[in-house]
Amino acid sequence: MSRLPFYLIVGLLLVAGTAFSIHRHLSLEVPWTPGEQRQVWEVEALINFEAQGDPALIDMALPANQQGFRVLTEHTASPGYGLSFVEDEGGRRAQWSIREASGSQQLFYTVQLLVSPDARAPDMPPPQLRRDIVWEQPYDTAAAQVIERAWNRSADPFTFARELMHDFSDERQGENVRLLLTQFQRSQLLVRLLNQAGVPAREVSGLYLEDGRRRQNLTSWVQVYDGEQWALFDPNSGEQGRPENLLLWETAGHAVLEVEGGSDSRVTFSMLTHNQPAAAAVRNQLSDDTLLNFSIHSLPLEEQALFQTILLIPIGALVVVLLRVLVGIKTSGTFMPVLIALAFIQTTLVTGLVGFLLVVAMGLVIRNYLSYLNLLLVARVSAVIITVIAIISIFSVLSYRFGLNAGLTITFFPMIILAWTIERMSILWEEEGPKEVLIQGGGSLLTAVLAYLAMNNPLIRHITFNFLGVQLILMALILLLGNYTGYRLLELRRFKPVTED
Amino acid sequence: MWTTPAKLRLKGIIGMNRRNIRYIGRYNSRRLYPLVDDKLKTKLLAQRYGITTPALIGTVSTQFGIKQLNKILGGHPGFVIKPAKGSGGKGILVIERVEGEHFIKPSGARLTLSDVERHVSNLLSGLYSLGGSPDVALIEALINFDEGLSEYTYEGVPDIRVIVFRGYPVMAMMRLSTAASDGKANLHQGAVGVGLDIATGTAIRGVQFDRTRQDHPDTGHELASLRIPDWRTLLLLAAGCYEMTGLGYLGTDMVLDRDFGPMLLELNARPGLAIQMANGEGLRQRLDLVEQQAEGITPEQRVAFAQKHFARHSELKEGPVQETAVAAG
């Protein structure tokens, strides 16, 4: 009988679980620990225009995931307007539309951006070189000369762009450049020249993020493609690279804002930044509904809270397996301790322990009397359930009267489980004596407390909730433990007399 | 207080995990469990295979059937009521004799008919069965156990547990009930376990509560002289249970009846590990040796093989005054 398939499955689960978790950590920025803080920028774009009483169509570019930033959430405020989000190779855009509008109009768009150094722009196909560039006389010769000058001093597209921009700087501006600048805007001209020289380039709009800044405007930047990647250049200084606080708002080379049926349109930005616990930042993240990004966070909040508990149960199960297989602790009911531990999470440990012991002790006394009544088993257990409910009610009322609000949490105990525990303990007492009740009851409580400590650990809660891959790892661990043929810890004591002689 | 895994391995002790995965998991097919978990099925099967068991007086399977109990019991001087699906000796009621209205337990406690009826009612509800499922009560004739062994036990009937692995009797012990165990033959409740030599059926070593003992705590009788009569027949009976059930790792519980000799009391598909304590030796080497043997060997040959290879000398002192112990095996 080969164990190979078994180890294959375990290995597969481990690899898949680890890979899945690392993927979530790397690509979605989910941190390993719950305490980490992440910087979040909130940017508000305000569009102003004068409507003329006609149908109006407003089309604005939107920022996308990019190097340094990840889009968390976005909201719009535009009463009366229809709104749709469009996504094409030109990037993401919002389109507002209205049948009739007049006077001054205001549209708001707010986006939350997570600062994440590892974020990357989605892969895009290499750009097509623009071949439709036509120069009029005498600009064509000027352009050709400017290109040739820079070309001779450069080695590749990036150095070429740098040299070109160098020639545009004030102290080195030649006649040709000055002539061209009379006709064209600086960055627009640069893009034309680069394309003319066979280097794909485009003009993009960037936004400097400064905390508390209002009425910030977009700035023009030039992106150059060297056949493998894009590089960003400052058209004024010729410096290559993205400043830390620059957000690229529009990257397709299109207009940022286009308004039909309006005039005097402009867009201004205001922004502020704040730090946020990483877990909350993750929760705000727009969930892409792909399989790899499969996440509990896409559920409504109420269901999320439920799942937070459900996903902890495997941890409790692992504790039970560890204690039973490696240590050899006896418990009453295999997974009863996990359920008790779940109740402890609601009640807190001390209240839970006291409540549990009180209810079980009272229950045992009453169960002892019930056994004299000579009832059928199901009827007796049902009677114990009702007794447990009565005990819990009395304790709740009493503790409330005495001002011990903690006592009210006793209702979180699973009553049917309590009733069965009482029934089992009672039979155990009759058959094996109080010592065995102490061993098994104590074992159950010890297991429950350990399971509670594991399940209530903030780090474990964070990891099980945010990394579903961990469930696969837990599965693999439990499978491995199920294969353990060595001695249990308590067997080292049990079998000791044999080794003595 | 603690020993090391290396020492246990040296002794060949097998632990629970190894027993569960390596032996029970591998050699005991789940679908065969009902044959041994239900004592009624075991009994009927044993009868078919010619294996002696205590005589069946009757069964009660429904609550209203309890009304017939008095009629079933009538005329029997003593009897045992057992749950068909009980485990670990739970729910077994032994009535030694009937005096008029009263049923007398071996301890001398007197029960009325309604006490017995209540016991049967609880039993049918599944109080003693695995998982609390509804059960059937078996009523068996009392075993007239061999007087020669009465000095070794207090109240209850001593039984002999033989571990049968792939049809080979690999290890055996006798369980003697004590006052501490309340007449029950469960080691963890305080019964004395006496390891038995597979070759001869003589006592090797005694333990109570995991500590070695030379005598019975209640009767004070030394254990060294304990010798099971009809030993080979008992081993053959135990070995035959392999063919009967198909279970590779089996605990067979036998009793010795004065008139009928060794009898099969019940089978256990998950026999405990305390037998290693009683024998002062681990099962590992013996199980390894048996695993190397081929299939398809008759019970007689298997018993002969076991008697040859698993023979051991007693560790017990012969008589209370004698100081020199026989060398350990």
Describe the overall structure.
The complex is a heterodimer of chains A (501) and B (329). Chain A contains 17 helices and 12 strands. Chain A is α+β, with helices and mostly antiparallel strands and 501 residues long. Chain A has a domain at 305-500. The longest helix of chain A is centred in the first third of the chain and has 25 residues, at 4-28. Chain A is elongated. The model of chain A has no long low-confidence stretch (mean pLDDT 82). Chain B has 2 domains: 5-35 and 147-309, D-amino Acid Aminotransferase, Chain A, domain 1, CATH 3.30.470.20; 55-141, Dna Ligase, domain 1 (2-Layer Sandwich). In chain B, 28% of the residues lie in helices and 22% in strands. The longest helix of chain B is centred in the last third of the chain and has 15 residues, at 231-245. Chain B starts with a helix and ends in a 20-residue tail after the last helix. Residues 320-329 of chain B have low confidence and may be disordered. Classes of the chains: A alpha+beta (501), B alpha+beta (329).
Could you tell me the strand content of chain A as a percent range?
15-25%
Number of strands of chain B: 14
Count of DSSP E strands of chain A? 12
Mean pLDDT of chain A: 82
Query: How far is it from the N-terminal to the C-terminal residue of chain B, by CA?
Result: 25 Å
